[in-house]
Design goal:
The chain is α+β, with helices and mostly antiparallel strands. The chain contains two helices and five strands. A five-stranded antiparallel sheet has the order 2-1-5-4-3.
Length: about 120
């Protein structure tokens, strides 16, 4: 499942997982630990409070249809930092509230795993 992305300067990486243990790109190749640390770092490094955003919406494909076999709701947390470096993480659920709770849980897991020192830029 698509769990998030990190955009830094001239690179953009989409991140997928099915268990919050193994993180891959769209083709199933493992994401390097350094990239996962950068993801966690930018999620934790907004330029200001106005550069953090939660968006909860229906989990639809590009035609507006719900995605078969996936939860009906998704929550997107984005943090835009210095030089527009951006970390994004998603959560999913049967309800909007459940999706936001899952997003916050996923954010906490990523921070604990890849940024345990709670670093920020």
């Amino acid at each position: 499942m698509y769990i998030g992305s990190v955009e830094m300067y001239d690179s953009f990486t989409e991140i997928y997982t099915s268990d919050m243990e193994t993180f891959t790109d769209k083709e199933g190749r493992a994401i390097l630990k350094e990239c996962l640390f950068e993801w966690a770092l930018w999620l934790n490094s907004p330029w200001s409070d106005s550069c953090v955003q939660y968006v909860v919406e229906m989990n639809t494909n590009n035609t507006g249809m719900l995605i078969d076999g996936e939860p009906a709701w998704r929550c997107k947390y984005s943090s835009v930092g210095y030089d527009a470096c951006t970390g994004i993480i998603y959560g999913y659920g049967r309800t909007a509230d459940e999706a936001k709770e899952n997003c916050n849980k996923n954010l906490a897991v990523v921070q604990a795993k890849f940024n345990p020192e709670d670093e920020s830029v």
